[in-house]
């Protein structure tokens, strides 16, 4: 999925997003998160046992949306939780670039969403 220069700028500016997953009971579980986007993959760092990660592992899918005034973007696709040191280090490095260095967390994992679809306000997504 291609983003315009404005879209690339939007996903590097400091905006929080909302991660949406489906709970065991079928209800939507939506929580605020910091997220990064690079090369068609959205990453969210957090604690391995968190409900958002448990839900994403169970269903294998997730979406992240971000809004700033009239500008908005939403990414969705298959999701997987990675806990190996290299994947977590990349997730932390990208998060640090966009937001700030996160606090130490020995239980940290990184949720990777391989983006299948991007919805966005005019000018953020390249038309195919």
List keywords for this structure.
128 residues; alpha+beta; Pnp Oxidase, Chain A; eight-stranded antiparallel sheet; 3 helices; 8 strands; globular
Question: How would you characterize this protein structure?
Answer:
With 128 residues, the protein is of the alpha+beta class. It has one domain: Electron Transport, Fmn-binding Protein, Chain A (Pnp Oxidase, Chain A). 23% of the residues lie in helices and 41% in strands. It has 3 helices and 8 strands. It has helices at 5-10, 51-59, 85-98, and strands at 17-22, 28-33, 36-38, 41-47, 61-68, 71-82, 108-114, 117-120. Strands 1, 2, 3, 4, 5, 6, 7 and 8 form an 8-stranded antiparallel beta sheet that branches. The longest helix has 14 residues, at 85-98. The radius of gyration is 14 Å and the shape is globular. The mean pLDDT is 95.
Describe the protein's topology.
Blueprint: H1 5-10, E1 17-22, E2 28-33, E3 36-38, E4 41-47, H2 51-59, E5 61-68, E6 71-82, H3 85-98, E7 108-114, E8 117-120
Antiparallel strand pairs: 1-2, 1-5, 3-4, 4-7, 5-6, 6-7, 6-8
Mean pLDDT: 95
Number of strands: 8
Q: What is the 3D shape? A: globular
Biggest pleated-sheet summary: 8 strands, antiparallel
**Percent of residues in β-strands:** 35-45%
- Judged by helices, strands and strand pairing, the structural class is alpha+beta
CATH class: Mainly Beta
Summarize the entry for a quick read.
The chain has 128 residues and is of the alpha+beta class. It contains three helices and eight strands; from the N terminus they run αββββαββαββ.
